[in-house]
Structure formats: structure tokens, C-alpha cells
Amino acid sequence: MTRLPQNPIKVGVLGATGTVGQRFILLLSTHPFFKLHVLGASSRSAGLAYSKAVRWKQVSPIPECARDLIVKTCIAQEFAECSIVFSGLDADVAGDIEAEFRAADLAVFSNSKNFRRDPVVPLIVPLVNTSHLSIIPHQRSLNSLQKGFIVTNANCSTTGLVIPLAALEKAFGPIDTCLVTTMQAISGAGYPGVPSFDIFDNVVPHIGGEEEKMEWEVAKILGGIAEDGQSFDCRATSPLLVSASCNRVPVLEGHTECVSVRFARRPPPSVEQIQQAMRDFTCEAQEVGCPSAPKEVIFVHEEVDRPQPRLDRDFQKGAGVNVGRIRPCPVLDVKFVVLSNNVAIGAATSSIINAEYAVLTGVVASDPVA
Amino acid sequence: MTRLPQNPIKVGVLGATGTVGQRFILLLSTHPFFKLHVLGASSRSAGLAYSKAVRWKQVSPIPECARDLIVKTCIAQEFAECSIVFSGLDADVAGDIEAEFRAADLAVFSNSKNFRRDPVVPLIVPLVNTSHLSIIPHQRSLNSLQKGFIVTNANCSTTGLVIPLAALEKAFGPIDTCLVTTMQAISGAGYPGVPSFDIFDNVVPHIGGEEEKMEWEVAKILGGIAEDGQSFDCRATSPLLVSASCNRVPVLEGHTECVSVRFARRPPPSVEQIQQAMRDFTCEAQEVGCPSAPKEVIFVHEEVDRPQPRLDRDFQKGAGVNVGRIRPCPVLDVKFVVLSNNVAIGAATSSIINAEYAVLTGVVASDPVA
Amino acid sequence: MTRLPQNPIKVGVLGATGTVGQRFILLLSTHPFFKLHVLGASSRSAGLAYSKAVRWKQVSPIPECARDLIVKTCIAQEFAECSIVFSGLDADVAGDIEAEFRAADLAVFSNSKNFRRDPVVPLIVPLVNTSHLSIIPHQRSLNSLQKGFIVTNANCSTTGLVIPLAALEKAFGPIDTCLVTTMQAISGAGYPGVPSFDIFDNVVPHIGGEEEKMEWEVAKILGGIAEDGQSFDCRATSPLLVSASCNRVPVLEGHTECVSVRFARRPPPSVEQIQQAMRDFTCEAQEVGCPSAPKEVIFVHEEVDRPQPRLDRDFQKGAGVNVGRIRPCPVLDVKFVVLSNNVAIGAATSSIINAEYAVLTGVVASDPVA
Amino acid sequence: MTRLPQNPIKVGVLGATGTVGQRFILLLSTHPFFKLHVLGASSRSAGLAYSKAVRWKQVSPIPECARDLIVKTCIAQEFAECSIVFSGLDADVAGDIEAEFRAADLAVFSNSKNFRRDPVVPLIVPLVNTSHLSIIPHQRSLNSLQKGFIVTNANCSTTGLVIPLAALEKAFGPIDTCLVTTMQAISGAGYPGVPSFDIFDNVVPHIGGEEEKMEWEVAKILGGIAEDGQSFDCRATSPLLVSASCNRVPVLEGHTECVSVRFARRPPPSVEQIQQAMRDFTCEAQEVGCPSAPKEVIFVHEEVDRPQPRLDRDFQKGAGVNVGRIRPCPVLDVKFVVLSNNVAIGAATSSIINAEYAVLTGVVASDPVA
Predict the structure, then answer these.
(1) CA distance to partner chain C, nearest, from residue D279 (Å)
(2) Residue B225, SS3?
(3) CB distance D249–C252 less than 8 Å?
(4) How large is the angle between the packed helices B156-172 and B271-280, nearest 10 degrees?
(5) Is B261 in CB contact (< 8 Å) with chain A?
(6) pLDDT of A370 above 60
(7) Does Cytoplasm appear among the keywords (chains A, B, C, D) (predicted)?
């Protein structure tokens, strides 16, 4: 395991008053080596103490380290002392601001969707494809930067899906096709998000853009990097067809997904082999010692009615995923249920593990002069 | 359209105090030609006025015609004057009681699962396969009966699925494979049913026996009858593989199902053709004039986020189904969302339309001597 | 009973695309003598067919009579042909628009709060104080009008409270003090209203301005009119102290209120007397034959656990109130539970009965020349 | 602060598979000096490993220290080695079993209601009246015991109410009257508890026996002990009238209560004085250093819309209470909102603090020979 940084690493949060921003702050407030240094939000909040600017919606109180920080506007010079900037910005502003921050040679780890399809920006689920960080030198070079870059993490519903898919491909080779139906929590829509009148006693069988994201992001995440290290192959060689049906359900936190897959390999692996492969799956973020990585990437349930969002979403602080009901699929090969915490590994936790990995592998300098 | 019966037809309800029984009573209380005559329940309720025996859980009050009926035990002689007996019995007692009623030469329309797999008992979704009633003479003959028989209707989640599948097969020939993920309402579990502690802010990704029922019942319903008229072929010749994933969600009423299908026909029909075929679909229950049949078997929604259980479950009193989001499936051919009312067409309404059809086609005698 | 108007009376709806506006349209679409003639909304909607302008959120489809009406802006000349204008406008615009409509000699029945405290505008709960319409001549005279006026109905939580209070005062004389704790449905907040993230698995013990409204409105509604007929006494002579605690709970429709009261009369009436007085309570709106008035103003439940919002809110189409659990209060005299439908008698239904009463008593001319 | 025991104290749990039993086990698994030694349940569970016997319904996994314990039947000899026995038994069996355990000279801390009204059994809310333990010698003497006794804690809704009342009486003298309306969580009803069909989108304005419990228990808890130390005065001298209205609402955990009080003292204290008195309130359980006592008995919120169950129920692990919205009551003197965690301080946490207090004050011997 890698040595942890000796000195605290100053970090900033963009969109600090929003839902994702609040989660960043909660996670960073107890982090072993990241230290909250600057909080950025809209000009409406700038100049206020964080506790005055935010409509805090978390179950635990505002961390002491954030309460009295004066909120700044989201301009790069305010964050000049930060080695890392986490972005929880809304998509309508994230594009411009993150680009400006990168141009100012800052390292941006973004939860926003804006740069996910950029050909030189890695889209990283930290329990799956941290290797994609290898494109950073090329991204820097294109932008004439020394330290700056943008790394994105995936959409919350993609994240829950792609982790077990990665475990299966690692053990059994390419997956051919995948059908997934999601039952997504309301917290995935931010705040104020879904009006209660729309989702009480109801299911909404549509989430704008979500199915397209799932179908596309999986291909980039499970794809490799071209030989010259300068582009992603987005599963060009061995296509993986994904068909997603996305639903909003009256659940606060935790996305449940029913997944069926077909392997390229004939005959396909058995249910027992798949259970074992999921249990055995490990990732580089664990190997290099990322403090926020879960102990078990995939926890496999044996009870017939698990995982369930209310009971399982907080296991390992939501940093891993839960899989259950692995069983044969009469149409494809095998089907199972995934439960992932959309506000943890599906959002802020992913960004933070990505950043930990970047620090521990030297992509971000870890021990700057104090 | 067929002539409606001139005289009221006396009917009984088995399991009258249960959830399905209460729905039978509501529907029968305003029926144009069925007349509630006997209510049967357990010995604990027998002898009491219905209003004293029942824990009424419906939104409208107990119908006047049922309020003061004295509840009987579920033995055939109490129902001797009934031309039709509807059964909403629990599966643990339905088998014996329904068999006894049939042996007493009574016509039983059952919502219970016990006889669904019986080789001479039709499993009828009234908007799909009323033609299966043609096996009744053979069933009577095997049991040496003049009038008695058992007809079952399908499981609530099967019903929602099989209606659009039937529309598609009617228009485009056999469906090869079908993947379905359900999000089922708590009312499907009866009363007391699902503990609130289990389903609040939660999804339970398992309903005992439900997936097997869906996968099997579709084959019987969409199958034909053998040439000799004495057995069902259960889709022996052109198998339709169904893979079901069943979930309970925090919704009171209305099962939502995400369905993907692959046709045998190549190339498959277009989305527009499928929309049209669903809209055009009609059934024999409509043709013979069943009063409880919906005007539109399938209502096709154009809004991107419909159907939704809370908004659409009561359309046409829940007697039809709602389909929306018909779109290409990257893995199979096409995918769509179905919403069906599990306590209406998914339960009591199906039994009643089946009985109406039997009356209107002479399978049950409609104008007995007074 | 009064003779109903022979000719349809043309009516308009202000705020037609909003939550209350949608309810007005549903109720008016099947009304025996009101006829939807003009729909008004913001300039964003004006010029569109209603079905294109509205985000329809009701369980039944958009009524045919409204679907193709072209939405107008909320200026009086667009409504010149309307004998009555119903207002479901938001409070931020209702003041100016309703004043302009009155100035144009139009009769406005408003669900908005803006004019409720106006000294010459009656605040009418139609099952309680339709007699307050007698101030209309004075209101017209002050504004130099022939036909125009503004009548308001009460806040939804006030309405549920004041109806049983009126029944008690009618039978037993003045109530001294009243403590009420409300559990209010989310639909009371309009659309988008309460974010699901705020109210799922939660109670919010505060609704802005609601407690003040309840404490104040009761005094005006249960007060008389001064002898000169030109002002309300707002309970100046026999004060009724009300203390309200208002809560939002995760319920879609139906406000539940726990009420304790103390009578001026000593000894106070018995529980049995109170039950009887509630059952016996009738109102002038019934006497003159308002078609939307409920058959029973107060339905008194005997079951120990009723009324309940989900089971009782739709009784009598929500036009009456439900009372249950009448029992002694160890601190004041008696306590009970009220359930009223906040979107029916708590909003649009009240306005409509008020207008029916005005027509049937000649305050609004009923049979204008065609 | 008192010295903590040096050696672990062996404890048992009666009703270990039930809802309260599971909470006892969670809390005891990480306790600084109590050590889980025996788990008792019905004969159906006896003989099984705990993990096989229980339907575990908690968010965190079964603690390691309980997982493999073999469940025993609830007979005293199985618990002979336990210095303390916690009872989470259902009321229908708790009476006999707890009596037998006491007769066997065991110290029983019970969450059940059976002995709460017993004239020599203290009813202790640990943040209020631990002084009532002084009756134990008399209870032992009556039963000819050396060590055994029964101590009960209060009903969950009583607990939330009585803590702020105690703070007010401590600062301002007797409270005269108190009206309280509760909005209680479903977890208060145990498992399976409230059927989802009854409480979804609903309020149930009745909880059997709950109002009587609240009205009565407050008098015993806030009353003193007679001079001879052999009975409770149950507020005989300065009566405190309580009127409770109890409601079940669709919330998982956390009871919200709207409270109005009238003081004997005229004039009553101001809102500011009351806020301060609540903040300043401390209890003996804190003073002797009970490890499970909260740091702040009452946390007073300043936000206008707090406390809320979802956001505040887990503050201080649910061991304290939350109060907010302290404001004048137009009818009595002052009103406020209380939020207490019904499964923590409202149940198992109370029993455990009571036991900690008994150990730290020598009522239970703390360092027995190993």
C-alpha cells in the first residue's frame, strides 16, 4: 500500500451549497489528507459565511471546518492555493467554469456531465477504470498545462451498473448485451428536484437523458485507451450493447437496478462462478490504498430479497455496491439486482476516490511546500 | 352486440371479507345484470352482517346491497341458488373449496392461483384469450357435470404484460423473447400484506413465486388449444421466452412494467407500426358487449413520462391497460412501459368480464327460470 | 328549494393552468349551470390551446370543454362576457388582477388570500357564513359598481376547522377557546410545491403564515355583520381565541386536524349532544339548493380510527367535512378530529358553492339575455 | 463523574428477536461495560444461532458478538449469570416472564408496559427521574429479594413529552395543563406493525391506549416519592392535566409532538426564558457519567421549520430530544414542537441509561467476582 501524504492537501469545492456540494463537504470534513480550503458558489452566496449561505439538507450538522468559511465566487483565482478542486456544479454552468479552472492550471474532479464525452477527459468510476488517468499527460499537453486537468466521474445510475459489469468482464471476458431497468431515488435529482406531488404514491418511468447516458457511458468506462495513449476506444473493438429503462421511484436514497447480461463466452459462466467473481473483484483504488475506497467493491447478498435501498445503501458508507439475486435469465444468460448509493459512490465519493488515487499515484503532487 | 340478460343473475362471492372480495362486491353492486346474492367467508365471519364481519378498506363506503347480507360459510349448499360464484379466496383454502363448488355443479370464476396450471382449467385474461372457454365442455365431461366448471384469471403482473404482447402477436406474429421488470404496488399483496416498515422509502426486489408465475402463465394464455379441444398447448409450437424481474415499490395501486421484446419476424415492425397495432387492438369481450370491458383495451400515451400509476391507474376504471414510451431497444427490438391496475383488470375486473363473456356466449345460462 | 337558472351562466377562470385552476376546470366541466367560457393565465400560456398550455396533474383527463379553449391573458376585457370569474391566481399577482376585474364590474370569486382581510370583502366558507354576502351592496357602492364585487373563500386549513366550530356555536352558543394542530397534505402547497426531498419520511412543523391565517380567519367567518351592514365585527363582542399549530405531512390530499374546544356555556354540552349537533348541522347553501353543496355538511364517524385522509377525503366529492373521535378533553371541554379535502371544500369547491349561492339568491343575475 | 466499572457486566436480552430486542443488541454490542451474554426469545427461536433466529431489520448488520449466540428460552435459569436483564418482550408475555425473572432475584430493565403502573415499580425516563430508583429497596423487601427488581421506562410518546416538561417545571415550577398532539412514526408499532396499506398516503388518528398512557405516565414520572419512600405520589399534590391526541403518520422513525402548556406561575415565563431553561436543563444521568446519556438533554432549534424527524432523529444517536418553534400560545401560555427518537430514547436507549445509572450509583453491583 502506498504511503499517505504527510501534509494536508488543500482542496476547494465548486457548487458548495448544492446537494452534491454538501456531500463533498461532509466527506472532506473528516478526510485523512484533504483539507477544505475554499468553497465556491453563485454570486448570491458569495461573501456569506457558509452556514448562512447554505440550505443545509443533510442528516448530520454542518461540519465545523466549513461552517464559518466565507463563500467565494467560482473564479479560478479564488482557488489558486488549492491542489484539487471538486466540482458539484449544475450542468448549466459547469462547462464554462470547469474549463476556466483547468485553463488556470487547476486539477478539477467533476461530478458534472459536461466533459464526460470529451475525447481527452477521462470518465472514471474509481472502482473500475482508474487506469484511464493515463491520458492526463496528453490532456495537459493539448492545453499547455503543467498541473491542470479535468477528470469526471460517471452518472449515478451508470456507476451502479458498470461496477458489476467490470467484475464480470474481468473474470469471464466480454459481455455482449445488457438490459437494465433502474428504480432511482429522488435524491438523484438534486434539490429542490422532484416535486412531492409528482412522485408520492407513484413511479415516473422517465428521467431526461438518463437512458442515453447509461448506454453511452458504459462504453467509455469499459473501453480501453488507444495505443498512443491519446484517446479512448469507447468499446470500439468489442461492442457492448446496453439497453436502459430508467424510472424514478419514491425512495430517498439508493438506486436499485435489475440487470440481465449475455456473455460473449459460450457456454456462459455459472451462477456460482459469477457470485465468486463478484466477491473476488478488487480494484486499483484499493490496491494503492485510497482511504475512501470500500473494503469490498461488491458485497454479494444471499438473502432472496436483498439488496434493498433502505437497508443496504449505507453499508461501507455507500462506497461499494450491493448485488443480490444472481440467477439464470431465461432470455440472456444471467440476471441480478444491484443497489448503489447514488449520493455516495454514485456522486461525491467517486470524485474523492478518483482524487485520492491521483494523489497516491503522483498524478497530483501530494506534498507541496507548505 | 349481444343482447344483455333480461333477468338479474344471482352471484356469490367467496372470500368476501378479503381484499379481492371487497373489490368484487364494489363492482357487483352496480353491475347491470349480476346481482349479489350470497357472501361467503371464514367461519369467524359467518353469521354476521357483512358490515360487521368486514374490515372495509375501500375508498367508497360498503354498498347498500351488501351491508346487511348475512355472511355464510364457504360451502356449496349455501350458494346453490347462484348461477355464478366469484372466488377471491386465499390460495391456502381456495383449492379445496373451489373443487367442492365445482363438484356441486357450480360455475366458479376464481382469482386464486390454485387451478391456473390445471390442464383442463382455462387461464383467461378477458382482453386476450376468452376463446379458451371452449375447453369447458371437456372440463365438465371429465367431472360429470352439467353446469359447473372452474375458470381462473391470471396473476396481476401477468395480466399487465400479456395484453400488449397479445396485441403485438396479433399484428406481427410470434414474439420470440421478452424481458420484463416490474414495479408492483403494495395492494397486490392483499391485507395486511406488506408491513410498512419493509416498504417505506424502499424497494423490495423479490416477490415470492411471482417471476415464475409471469414466465409460465404467459405461455398458457398466449398458447392455443389442441385440435381435439381437450388441452392447452402452452406455446408448445412457438415458444416465447419470458424473463421477469419482480419488485415491490412504495405505490398503493397500479403495477408498472418495463418490457423489451424481440419478434420472430425480421425485420421487426417499426415503433409507429407498434403504436398503431396497440391502439387498434380489440378483443372478443368488447365484441360480444361485456359491460365491464374497457372501451380501449390499450391506451397509448404520447407524453414522454407516462403512464404513471397515480395518474393513469383509474382510467377506464382500471379495466384497460396503459402503454407508453414505445421506443427501440438496443438489445432486443422494442421496449415500452405498461401500467395496469392490479386490483381492477389485474384481479376482480378480469373475473367479472370473464363471467360476463361466459353469460353472453351461453357458457353460463343467462335467463334461468325465476 | 330555489329554481335553478334556465340558461347556462358563462364563467371564467383566472390562473387556469395552476393547481387550483385545474380543479376549477374539472368541477365546472360538469356543472349544471355554469359554463366554462374563458380561461386566463400568464402571458407565457396566452394564445395556446389549454391542453398545450397546461401541465395537467389531475387523475381524470382534461375535460373536453376546456381542451381546445385558447388561453387568454388575465385582463378584464377578455372576460367581459362572463357573469362570474373564479380566481385561482397566486397571491403575488392576485391582488392587482382581481382589483382590476372588480373595477371592470365583474363578479370575482377568489380562492386567493389577498382580499380576505379587506373590511368590505366577505370571507365566506359556504357551509357556514353565506349570510356575509349581504355586504356586497356596500362593497359595490364604495366602488361605484353595478354588478362587480370580490368574494373570497377561506384558507384550506381554516375551512376544515370553522365548519365544526360553526355547528357547535349554532347549537351551544359561543366557543371560548380552541386549540388545533393540523396535519396538512402536500397538495395544499400547489405545484411544484413541496420538494419530495423535504417531506418524504418526514414532518415539517411549519407552514409560512398558516397559523396566523387560521387564528384570524376564524374570527371573521364566525363574526357577524355590523348593524349598518357595512362592516364585519370579526368577533369583536365574543372573542374566540384560536391557537393553531400547523404541520405538513406526507399525504397527498386531505387535511387532518386535531381540535380541542372550550365552550362559554357551563356546564358544557355532552359528547352525545355534540355528536348530534354536528350531524344535525345544515346550512343555507343546502337550503337554497346549491348543486355542489354536500348532502351532509358534517359526516360524523363512529369508528375509533376515522376519519382518515386516504379513505374519507373523497366522500361527497370532498364537499363536506368528516369528524370523528369526539371525546372529552381533560384540559378544555371536548376534542375531536376533522378531515377536510383541501383541494375541494378547502379551495375550488368553496368558491363554486359561494357563486352558486350568489346566483340562487340573486346577488349575481342568473338569466341574462342570451 | 463516577468511575466506570472495571470489569464487563454480563447482561441478557429478553425478546431478542423483536424490534426492541434488535435495538438493545445494537446498542449493547458497542457498550463500554455491558457485555451481551444471553439472548432470550420464544421457543420457536430457542436453540438456533441468533443470526438464524432473527429477521434482522436494522440498517447496520447483526453485531459479531450476537451473531452466533444460541438463543435461549425466556426462563430465569438461563440468565442466572446476568447482572442485568433487558426486556423488549411483547406485552402479552412480558408480565409473567418479568415477574418470574424478578422472583429469581434478577434485575430487570423493561421497555414493556406491564409493570409501569405497579405502585412499587419505578417508571423512569432517565433524563428526568432517575431519583425514583430509591424505591428499589422497598420493592426488594416486598418480594424478599437481595438483588432483583423491575424498573420500567416510559412509552415512546410519553418520553418525548415529559423531558421538556421536566425542564420547564425545574425552572419555573408546576405546569398546570398541557395539550399535546402527536405525529408518531410507524416504527413505534413494532414489526410487522402497521400494514403499509393502512398508512401510505394517510394519517391514522388513533393509536390504541396511547393517549391514556401519555396522560397517566406523565403524572407518575413528574410526581415525587412519598416520604416513607414506599410509594409514588403520581402528582397527587399538584395535578398536571394532560390532554393527548395521538396520530400515526407515514414516517419511519421519530415522533413529532405539538405541545401547549400553561404554567401555575403568573405571569408565565417568557419565550426567551423558556428557551434558556430548555438549553440549561441537565440530569443526574449526565452527572454520574452514564455513557449513553446525551451531551445535551434538549437541543433547541432556532430555524423556524425544525425539528423534523428525518433530519433530527439521529442527532446524539437519538439519546436526547429536539425542541423548536417555542412561541406564545394564544390559549395557554406557550407552545412548541418536540421531536424524539422513538426507537432510541423512546425505547432501548432509555432502558440502557437506566441500567447504567443503576450500576454507577450502586443499585446494581458493578464489579462482581469474575
Answers:
(1) 20
(2) strand
(3) no
(4) 110
(5) no
(6) no
(7) no
Inform me whether the C-beta atom of residue D311 falls under 8 Å from chain C C-beta atoms.
Answer: yes
Torsion of CA D333, D338, D344, D350, to 10 degrees: -10
Angle formed by the axes of helices C271-280 and C156-172, nearest 10°: 110
How far apart, in whole angstroms, are the C-alpha atoms of residue D299 and residue D164? 10
Report the interhelical angle of A156-172 vs A210-221 (nearest 10°).
Answer: 40
Q: If DSSP codes are grouped into helix, strand and coil, which group holds residue C210? A: helix
At residue C121, φ and ψ (nearest 5 deg) are -100, 120
Residue of D nearest to A310 (CA): D59
Lowest mean pLDDT among A39-48, B98-107, B233-242, D62-71: B233-242
Q: Which chains touch D (3 or more CB pairs under 8 A)?
A: A, B, C
**Rounded Cα distance, A154 and C120, in Å:** 61
The answer, yes or no, to whether residue A107 has pLDDT greater than 90, is: yes
Is the minimum CB–CB distance between B57 and chain C shorter than 8 Å?
Answer: yes
Using the Cβ of C57 and the Cβ atoms of chain B, whether some distance falls under 8 Å is answered with yes
Long-range contacts, D76-79 (Cβ 8 Å, 24+): D76/D100, D76/D101, D76/D103, D76/D104, D76/D106, D77/D104, D78/D12, D78/D38, D78/D40, D79/D12, D79/D38, D79/D40, D79/D104, D79/D106
Q: Strand pairing partners for B250?
A: none
pLDDT at D367: 61
Among partner residues D59, D201, D314, which is closest to A311 by beta-carbon distance? D59
Question: Rounded distance, CA C362 to CA D323, Å?
Answer: 53
Cell of B77: 349448499
Report the CATH superfamily, name and number, of domain D156-342: Dihydrodipicolinate Reductase; domain 2 (3.30.360.10)
pLDDT reported for residue C4 = 86
> Mean pLDDT throughout A322-333?
98
Question: Does residue A1 surpass a pLDDT of 60?
Answer: no
Domain ranges of chain A: 9-155+348-360, 156-342
Give dist(CA C262, CA D81) in Å, integer: 57
Q: Which pLDDT tens digit goes with each residue over C9-49?
A: 999 999 999 999 999 999 999 999 999 999 999 999 999 99
pLDDT of residue B165: 98
On whether ipTM exceeds 0.90, the answer is: yes
Residue C168 has pLDDT above 70, yes or no: yes
**Alpha-carbon distance C345 to C339, whole Å?**
11
Question: For the domain with range B156-341, which CATH number is right: 3.40.640.10, 2.60.40.1220, 3.30.360.10, 2.40.50.140?
Answer: 3.30.360.10
Q: 3-class DSSP state for residue D339?
A: strand
Q: What integer pLDDT is reported at residue D236 of this predicted model?
A: 79
The pLDDT value given to residue D239? 87
The one catalytic residue among D31, D37, D132, D156: D156
Q: Which fold has domain C9-155+348-360?
A: Rossmann fold (3.40.50)
Residue C370, pLDDT above cutoff 70: no
8 Å CB contact between C257 and C180: yes
Gap between the Cα atoms of C345 and C332, Å rounded = 28
- pLDDT < 70 positions in chain B: 1-2, 367-370
A197 near B CB under 8 A? no
* CA C54 from centroid of its chain's CA atoms: 23
On whether the CB atoms of residues A82 and A109 are closer than 8 A, the answer is no
Kindly report, residue by residue over D284-329, the tens digit of the pLDDT. Answer: 999 999 999 999 999 999 999 999 999 999 999 999 999 999 999 9
Same fold, C9-155+348-360 and C156-341: no
Asked if D250 lies within 8 A of B57 by C-beta distance, the reply is no
Check: CB of residue B290 under 8 Å from CB of residue B27: no
Would you call B258 a catalytic residue per the annotation?
no
The pLDDT, as a whole number, for residue D370 is 42
Statement: residue C368 has pLDDT above 60 = no
